[in-house]
Amino acid sequence: MALREIVLVPDPVLRRKANKVTTFDKSFQQLVDDMIETMRAAPGVGLAAPQVGISQRLLVMEFGDEEDEEAPKKLFVFVNPEIVKSSEEKVTGVEACLSVPGMAGEVERHQTLVVKGLNRFGKPVKHKLEGWTARIFQHENDHLDGVLFTDRATKVWQPSEEEIENIHD
Ligand code: NI
Fold this sequence. Notes:
Blueprint: H1 26-41, E1 46-48, E2 58-63, E3 74-86, E4 90-97, E5 100-110, E6 112-118, E7 124-130, H2 131-143, H3 149-152, E8 155-157, H4 161-165
Antiparallel strand pairs: 1-2, 2-3, 3-6, 4-5, 5-8, 6-7
The structure holds nickel (II) ion.
Nickel (II) ion binds at residues 97-99, 139, 143.
């Protein structure tokens, strides 16, 4: 495994609509492993392939339980993800992005989602996501369409060091 360099704005790859993944070969598996490692090292709770300069519809997320800090983190790998259903209920939360350093913003997201896609080996998967996990998914899925959180934020600011520690990336 190897760390990949995280692409920053205004790199055009962050604004491109990413291509569907069609091959699940060795080099794709390498990319998935590298993205997981890069996300953990950042550290971040999610990473989309365009953020490492690869215009493909792949995202990884890893997040623990909101209520229970001791609970093990859950890792998700989504290939060609799609939102099947989204709740009418929306929640506002503070987001940041590894590709948009030094910025934070308030973004409204659906509270719950049903999502489908493929796993890293090309097998279909379907999940119900809620709360922060749903938020992270919407943030990362936007990256696959060239959308950044700053496009959706109602308020964007430069957070203080202390504030940064409390923001879920
Ligand atoms: Ni991001």
